[in-house]
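It is worth pausing here to work through a concrete case rather than discussing structure prediction in the abstract. The textbook approach is simple: state the sequence, then state the predicted structure, then interpret. We follow exactly that order.
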Amino acid sequence: MGPRAFLQATGKAVRDVDRKHLLAFAGSLAYYYFLSLIPFLILLASGLAYIPIPHLFDQVLLWMSYFIPPDSMALVRKVFADLMATRNSGFLSFGIIGTIWTASGASAAMIEALNVAYEVKEGRPFWHTRLLAIGLTFILAALGAIVLAAMILGPELGARLAHRVGLDPLFLETWSYFRWILAICTSILAVEVIYHLAPNVEQRKFLRTLPGAVVAVISWVAASFGLGFYLGHFGQLSKSYGTLGAVAALLLWFYVSSAAILIGAEVNAALLKAARDQLPVKQVPETKAEPPLRLAG
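Step two, the predicted structure:
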């Protein structure tokens, strides 16, 4: 498929986002992600307590501040600091269970939203979709840990490697860029896993949904920086709503993040339909109805 067909499919995807009410699903996903935040912070704080790296807490907050809006980051920083100050071994178990439960609910909502994007019905049993949601949660958590390790532990690992092997300072500069490339590629892989496994559509090739994953990650990064810039300079919600402003900003960030993922899914759905419509006319009789997408399983 050429660039022109890709742009046409992307334009159709943007129009179909409104027709299929995918932004309403983005609001539902934002709610689930917000519920997952506190258990996730408990899990993260409990895990960081066992990693003997100086200033690790500050490095984690610095990396999170790149994407989370300033007002919301102040709230996250306060909650995170309180959790780090109150170290309890029981917190780790609660964080794991709470994160899995709430995040799997978000994954289940994502499965439903992607089925709407592809315009297919969910024909898989409930236990199948629930196990799939939990499996997606574990996979995404593992990929998220890789991104976090690359961004947080990357500088120290690069410095140790350069010292042990005897590499010049140019390696450290290159390593800094490599960390960001690894984080972006891992993020694309995480979205690609969602697109490949979640919808009730047969996906024979893993990379077939790569265009939508790239669109989703680019949209998410752009929306995160754009939202952070706007809230930091023009729309400081904390001045109008106090503490609730931080919560509202965080929900808004979850909303635009969910919308980016659903827009990427709609791009893949449009590309799949466009590829199907490019079949030779002689192979499709005029009286025959449009063939449906093949369901998974």
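Step three, interpretation. The longest helix spans residues 243-277. The CA atoms of residues 113 and 125 lie 17 Å apart.
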